[in-house]
Design brief:
Layout lengths: L10 H4 L7 E8 L4 E7 L15 E16 L2 E14 L5 E3 L14 H12 L5 H8 L3 H17 L10 E8 L9 E7 L1 H5 L5 E7 L3 H9 L3 H5 L3 E4 L3 H10 L4 E4 L1 H24 L8 H4 L13 H11 L5 H18 L3 H16 L7 H12 L1 H9 L6 H16 L6 H12 L3 H4 L5
Parallel strand pairs: 2-4, 6-9, 9-10
Antiparallel strand pairs: 1-2, 3-4, 4-5, 6-7, 7-8
Helix pairs in contact: 2-3, 2-4, 3-4, 4-17, 6-8, 9-12, 9-14, 12-13, 13-14, 13-15, 16-17
Length: 438
């Protein structure tokens, strides 16, 4: 422990009241909270009238109660004694200025609002937990946090600076039938490419259509749009069309996660169809095709001996040949993405696209459908191999964080509220508020 110079206890400095223009004159500790008796640090111009300049006389004293940042999770309340003056010349009445401590009609001190914002963004606390620590109502804490977060973080236009690569995807923000349950999320993937840090949420707009994404792009400055080099996306053609129209110089990349997912979905549909044709019912626990559903989605290089034996027994049945053919295409796509040489991986993926785009038997309806999609988006699929590391994987990770946020809050009913909370949760603001992350 380093040597320290100790001084007399100073409650004003300890509670950081000096930053609010207050001076502590007493304290009262209750079982559920601590109350600090404060007065406003006097200024020389306090007694003088702002209208006529005459010196006023003290009329009386009023009190103002503010929730302050807790100490040791004990709620702390500031009881501020504010002097009121009356002008002897024009009879004007005024009081000491307390705007340094809190805004007009505010119930939280500025230090409390800052503490709550840091707790929400850095500590991932819920609004309910913050409100409990401040001993205020939920709506009081929520309104103060969102207003401060909007002012100092979300409304800062510089947070869009330096964005060169974005990801776009859909997200389900509520699971009810009332209204549109989908939103379009836009992610900044530039830090991932540059190795500067994790991806961050840029914005979120209502709906999951071409128009929703296009209107968001139109709303951004042209210089910003001209700087976008890469857009990672899934197979939704609306995102592709909006990118082509508004970002003509950007490269659209259909990321590996969604490409493999297309093949996996084709494999599942084929397995279910064959299961229904052979047995006349959906898969049951003892049906070989149903039992192998997870094994079929495992990369061939990761299969155990037991899984190898299960697949060999499955494909030994002649009626399962369609499943085997679809599984083979699925495995070839995985091998292409996992190949260490991206140039060779591009060749392998090109061969896969060519093989499913023509000469596919009519019985393999799932592969024919997959082939049409891959042929249409071949340029976007192959662009990944020219731009290694371009993936919507970080976008899916942020979607997972938003799912966690929604669960912690027990759901949201207001979309504007959800967007603000999502930006505070995943907007990359932690280094701005956490000293040790700068």
């Amino acid at each position: 422990m380093r040597d320290a110079t100790f001084a007399a206890p100073d409650l004003t400095t300890f509670a950081r009241l000096d930053e609010l223009g207050l001076v502590a004159v007493g304290q009262h500790v209750e079982p559920d909270r601590a109350v600090l008796d404060c007065r406003v640090a006097g200024r020389q111009d306090d007694p003088f009238c702002r209208r006529c300049g005459a010196e006023g006389v003290i009329r009386d004293t009023v009190t103002r109660r503010l929730a302050h940042e807790p100490f040791g999770w004990r709620p702390t309340t500031l009881l501020i004694r504010v002097r009121r003056y009356r002008c002897a010349g024009c009879s004007r009445v005024w009081r000491q200025d307390t705007t340094k401590a809190a805004g007009p009609r505010a119930k939280l001190s500025r230090a409390a609002v800052r503490w709550a914002l840091v707790g929400l963004v850095v500590g991932h606390l819920t609004v309910a937990r913050v409100a409990e620590a401040l001993a205020v109502a939920w709506h009081t804490a929520n309104d103060a946090i969102l207003a401060e977060g909007q002012r100092v973080l979300i409304d800062d236009d510089t947070r869009f600076d330096g964005v060169r690569m974005i990801g776009v995807d859909e997200h389900v923000w509520r699971h009810t039938r009332r209204g549109d349950k989908y939103v379009t999320v836009i992610i900044d993937l530039t830090p991932i490419r540059d190795g500067a840090g994790p991806a961050r949420l840029l914005d979120m707009v209502e709906g999951r259509s071409k128009n929703a994404f296009k209107q968001w792009l139109v709303g951004r400055p042209k210089t910003w749009r001209d700087g976008i080099e890469v857009v990672a996306m899934d197979g939704f053609t609306g995102f592709k069309t909006a990118t082509t129209e508004e970002l003509p110089d950007a490269t659209a990349v259909m990321d590996p996660f969604h490409v493999v997912q297309l093949a996996g979905d084709a494999l599942d549909r084929c397995r279910r169809r064959v299961q229904q044709d052979l047995h006349g019912h959906r898969g049951r626990s003892k049906d070989p095709l149903y039992r192998a559903r997870r094994t079929l989605h495992t990369g061939s290089s990761l299969l155990t001996d037991k899984q190898h034996a299960r697949l060999e027994a499955l494909f030994a049945v002649e009626e399962h040949i369609e499943v085997e053919a679809t599984w083979g295409i699925y495995q070839r796509m995985i091998s292409a993405y996992r190949h260490p040489d991206k140039a060779r991986g591009r060749e392998l993926m090109t061969a896969v696209i060519n093989s499913v785009s023509k000469s596919v038997p009519a019985a393999l309806v799932e592969l024919r459908r997959l082939g049409r999609t891959l042929t249409k988006r071949a340029t976007d699929v192959l662009a990944y191999f020219d731009l290694p590391g371009t993936s919507n994987g970080p976008t899916e990770a942020i979607n997972g964080r938003l799912e966690h946020l929604r669960g912690s809050a027990l759901g949201f009913r207001n979309l504007a509220h959800y967007i603000a909370r999502s930006l505070l949760e995943a907007g990359g603001f932690r280094p701005l508020l956490h000293l040790h992350l700068r």
